[in-house]
Design a protein that fits this description.
DNA polymerase, domain 1; 8 helices; 2 strands
């Protein structure tokens, strides 16, 4: 790259100066940083298209800074000591807070038949591939929500499953019969409202879900009793 191109590149890096204006400045005799530094703002402003504000900006950006005086050995030592002090902050007395580590408790698992285990795996695969079912023309009207509604209308293209229409709910997207209404863990969920309801639960294949209407005191009692009976609670207060 020639000196001319390098100088023009420096000029164009300043805000408000394009290539055409940079060439005009160069052709008017200001072809180096030294000449610009010696020239006054009024001289630069004589160039066509260059205002006094722009001339000032050019001088501020291009004029080289004066070289800094070399530091004396004494000042160098002072600076080194200051840097060391910054790097090595004063050690403050730290109060050790000992927290009890919570041990991981293995959750109770159900005793499942092989066909149910297989059905749960198939259900997981179907859910991954299942599309999002959206209401007909949800994008057209603000008053319509995205919640699924069966498409209606004699001329509805979505109802007739024509090309470029989104998927509709069909039987093929349904999960296997053995895995329906089961918790992801494989347990059958049973809603519990009091301690007596726990007696009806089979802890090998069923798990309890405490009702939302139950208060904290009664909930703690249910959780305590469930631990004694070996019943898993799906929505514990303290997980």
């Amino acid at each position: 790259m020639s000196n001319k191109e390098e100088f023009i590149k420096k000029l164009t890096s300043i805000e408000g100066i394009g290539r055409a204006k940079a060439l005009q400045i160069y052709e008017n005799g200001f072809d180096s940083i030294e000449k610009i530094s010696k020239a006054s703002i009024e001289d630069l402003a004589k160039v066509k298209g260059v205002s006094k504000d722009l001339a000032k900006k050019i001088k501020d950006n291009l004029v080289e800074e004066k070289p800094k005086k070399a530091a004396t050995p004494e000042k160098k030592e002072e600076k080194v000591e200051e840097i060391k002090e910054k790097k090595e902050p004063k050690k403050e007395e730290q109060v050790e807070i000992v927290e009890e580590e919570k041990k991981y408790e293995v959750k109770i698992k159900p005793e499942l038949l092989p066909q149910i285990k297989r059905a749960l795996k198939i259900r997981d695969l179907i859910k991954k591939k299942k599309p999002e079912f959206l209401r007909q023309e949800w994008f057209r009207y603000k008053r319509l929500s995205e919640n699924w509604r069966r498409p209606k209308g004699l001329t509805s293209k979505m109802r007739r499953h024509m090309k470029y229409r989104i998927n509709v709910v069909r039987i093929g997207f349904r999960s296997p019969r053995e895995a329906r209404c089961l918790h992801p863990s494989g347990f059958e969920e049973v809603t519990v409202c009091n301690v007596k309801d726990l007696e009806k639960i089979d802890n090998k294949r069923q798990a309890a879900r405490i009702s939302g209407a139950v208060g904290t005191r009664k909930r703690i009692e249910i959780e305590k009793k469930a631990d004694e009976m070996g019943i898993r609670i799906l929505n514990r207060l303290n997980k």
